[in-house]
Write a structure and sequence with these properties.
By secondary structure, this protein is of the alpha+beta class. The protein has 4 helices and 12 strands, in the order αβββββαββββαβββα.
Length: about 220
Amino acid sequence: MIEDRAETERLDVGLLRSVLNPNPASGAAVREEGVGNEALIPAAVLFPIVLHASGPSVLLTQRTEHLKNHAGQISFPGGRAEAEDLSPAHTALREAQEEIGLASKSAEILGYLPEYRTSTGFCVTPVVALLTPPLDLRADPTEVAEIFEVPFAHLMNSANHQRDSLTRNGVVRRFFAIPYENRYIWGATAGIIVTLARALMAAEASRVADRCPVAD
């Protein structure tokens, strides 16, 4: 739980809902560098915004070091779609229950961000949801090393969005990164966060422009 932080604010749920798609796979997909329209593995993640009295935060996980994909990285709860999943929301909620013990009834789904196509072979649907404390969470030790939260304001502040790169097998990969305290959020997780932040900034700018029309 996040207490006594400087970055406290109320979440504008109406503005947030306005920038989300009511249905998955709506709008233009976001692609990591070098990714086109090739077939990718369907997946979904839960973008959980926790409504603390002191201000909203985003719940994230630190993956265990032994996993085959994205070992040790910071990520949203989620994973690849299974044949029995009815929708991306079903996938995200099922994975969240398996990974962190989140009951599906605890999540109020607001909508979806555009599909996020990764260079690691996944087509990820981000499912944005509100969580209201108290939450009874339990990390699955085979997948999740830690559950933690980051202030929503920190993640949405473009001043905290960095561009970084790494070279693997002679190929340079560029990606977004968002440092927070001793943590380094990067790759698809940071990219999805930046997607929401940019949508909210654009919506807020449009709202301000509507309130303050330019005089002739």
